[in-house]
Input
Amino acid sequence: MLKKRLIPKLIFKVKEIGQEKYPVIVTTKNFKNIKFVGDPISQAKIFESQLTDELLLVNMDSLDLDNNQFLLDYYKEFSNKIFMPLTIGGGVKNIGSFKKLLKNGADKVCLNTAAIENPEIVSGASKIFGSQCVVVSIDFKKIDKDYLVFYRNGKINSKKLLFEWIKEVENLGAGEILLTDIDKDGMSDGLNIEVAEKVSNSSKLPIIMSGGCGVAQHFVDAFKNTKIEGIAAGNFFSFRDQNIHQARSQILNNGIELRK
Output
């Protein structure tokens, strides 16, 4: 059995102070109610000291990588200071975006909107860089009786059915899927076990769930009742530094094996 992964999710927006631009971590609720939290590198160092498995770093502004060299420089600085596997997302437009991110610190590249608007990017990147580098992020919410896929930070309904899109992404050659329930984002009331169970039982890909972790037991419940490989959390890991230790201890005490 594969060991499970805990993945802090550092979502950031860029703040301008004077003429300088600085990435700042934010937390959200339902992809709204944005609160600025702190410095990504400082927070990542805390996670690293607490035996975090890997990190997910996402540019919520989706800044164009071709016109924002400062961002690529920041990613390189980040990867030089933080010695953990790093997945970077936000602003991915084409194969060139993959090249830039992988050259500047990313071990994997996460894409969301680009996969919906131009699915060939997924297959192309998989062939060029290997499927292990391609993480497709899928944001969803329940409308009436169906789970539908949203994109552009949850603002646009793609009208795609969640489980059909997951199967399509798998066929395109993605190496991993990150699922986020928009309605549970930041609500701290537990992960969407229903979706996690269905997807992890049917997909051949590693499934990472996100959205809703509020206490350590939520991690345990998801790992015990589904076959997901990992859980990514933002708010849970941002507000109390010891949360990773607490979560790891409770998960291990429930007989669930973790990496490291």
Summary: The chain is about 35% helix and 30% strand. The first strand starts at residue 5 and ends at 17.
